[in-house]
Design goal:
10 helices; single chain; 2 domains; two-stranded antiparallel sheet; alpha/beta; 4-stranded mixed β-sheet; binds zinc ion
Length: 265
């Protein structure tokens, strides 16, 4: 029996996390499950169950695998300790975002890409399993990789780890606004660390990751203010979303002026 279709289904599910690829993995599991399973069959099915978060089934199958290597033993020990995951399968476009807190300086956290929607992960602060999170980390002594929107918004994560989310930002005259930006607003992943501009004596809102093409589409080259060391011609020629010269677009919450920051690898 070959496993190619099972491997493909698992790979698809890992990248899409959607309902149809989940169902495909389940179908493949049924197809590969039979009474006289070889050791190889069992190893493959343990991986498949773990892939779709069915850890209880994976771990009972682990018990049946004979002559486990040290490495396998260790891996299966981890599987045993995990609770089953329950996927929600909501496409980003139809996702219920009513439970998301409102970030003053990042009004559209999913669309702007500052928060991601993906495979269930554990929040480093509250320990809850979440599918919407920030991976930009926190500037603090401990290693913090993944935080849920609520632990960021409430200031709980910044307080718990005694850290701040922005590497650099301008200071505005309202002290609470400075606290809100540095302790309750997710950072954005950048090449050289965040810089968060201000305008009209308030912090700007993060709009998204951009390249020259995105600014062309918005038609804002004539009005955008930029706080970078780069000449506008260099930005127009070389700035690419996902490239070595990356742009970060902000907008003033008061006068609506766009403000661009960019950095390079
Ligand atoms: Zn949390
Ligand atoms: Zn302004």
């Amino acid at each position: 029996m070959t496993y190619q279709s099972l491997i493909t289904a698992m790979k698809n599910f890992r990248s899409t996390q959607d309902r149809s690829s989940f169902d495909q993995v389940c179908l493949e599991i049924e197809h590969h499950k039979h009474n006289k399973m070889t050791r190889k069959d069992m190893v493959m099915l343990v991986d498949a169950y773990a892939c779709i978060g069915k850890y209880a089934l994976a771990s009972s199958l682990c018990e049946m695998i004979p002559n486990k290597s040290k490495k396998e033993f260790k891996k299966y020990q981890t599987i045993k300790n995990k609770p089953d995951l329950h996927f929600t399968f909501v496409e980003l476009s139809q996702m219920d975002t009513s439970q998301l807190p409102t970030f003053t300086y990042c009004p559209n956290p999913l669309e702007s890409g500052i928060l991601s929607f993906g495979a269930p992960e554990v929040c480093d602060c509250c320990g809850e399993v979440v599918t919407i999170y920030s991976e930009a980390g926190l500037y603090c002594m401990e290693e913090v990789h993944l935080l849920c929107p609520h632990c960021i918004h409430s200031g709980k994560a910044a307080k718990k780890f005694n850290g701040t989310f922005q590497q650099m930002h301008e200071f505005v005259s309202k002290p609470h606004a400075n606290y809100e930006l540095s302790c309750c607003t997710p950072g954005y992943i950048s090449w050289q660390g965040e810089y968060w501009p201000a305008h009209c004596d308030d912090h700007c809102a993060f709009i998204g990751f951009v390249g020259a093409n995105e600014l062309d589409d918005l038609g804002i080259w004539d009005t955008v203010e930029h706080t970078t060391a780069y000449d506008i011609n260099v930005l127009q020629e070389y700035m690419r979303d996902g490239g070595d010269l990356q742009g970060y677009l902000f907008q003033c919450l008061h006068c609506k002026t766009y403000v661009l920051y960019a950095d390079a690898s």
